[in-house]
Amino acid sequence: MSKESFFAIEKRQLKLNKLVMPKTILIVEDHSFMRYFIAEILINAGYRVIEAEDGHDALSKLDGCLIDLIFTDLNMPKMGGLDLIKTVRQRSDCRLIPVVVYSADRDHAKKHADSALNVKAWLNKSTMRDRIIFEVSTLLR
């Protein structure tokens, strides 16, 4: 088998894997309507979705699951998004999972103060569907 045909086969296999094994996104949002809205966008874009209603719920769902990206709100009861991200970054089994923050909080100082948390994208809740899909797909390449 030539080197070119080997890479062509491998490239086809990678495309097939994307079709067969979609990436899994953990959505963490306390408002059920927003969780549903985000989940529908991501499911229709071909992603597998797991939902959590706050940081504590998200941490329990991280145990034993292969999560490719966390999509979280900031302001939630019990455990908010920043505490969730801090906890995730401390865990060796999931500290490298990319995080997208999706929040109505427009406090830009928070973004800079928490740059050590390695948040990959900050989206406002008024962000349109196409921008959500663009950010997620860019991070999961």
Description of the molecule:
- With 141 residues, this protein is of the alpha/beta class.
- It has one domain (23-139): 3-Layer(aba) Sandwich (Rossmann fold), CATH 3.40.50.2300.
- The chain is built from 6 helices and 5 strands.
- It has helices at 3-20, 32-44, 55-62, 81-90, 108-113, 129-139, and strands spanning 24-28, 48-52, 69-72, 99-103, 121-124.
- It has a 5-stranded parallel beta sheet with strand order 2-1-3-4-5, with helices on both faces.
- Helix 4 links the parallel strand 3 and strand 4 (99-103).
- The protein is globular, with a radius of gyration of 16 Å.
Nearest-angstrom radius of gyration?
Answer: 16 Å
- According to DSSP, the number of beta strands is 5
Give the helix/strand class. alpha/beta
CATH homologous superfamily annotation: Response regulator
| Percent helix | 40-55%
Q: Give the overall pLDDT as a whole number.
A: 80
**Mind summarizing the main beta sheet?**
5 strands, parallel
**For the record, what CATH class applies?**
Alpha Beta
Examine the secondary-structure arrangement and name the CATH architecture.
3-Layer(aba) Sandwich
Overall 3D form: globular
Distance between the termini: 28 Å
Can you give me a brief rundown of this structure?
The protein is of the alpha/beta class and 141 residues long.
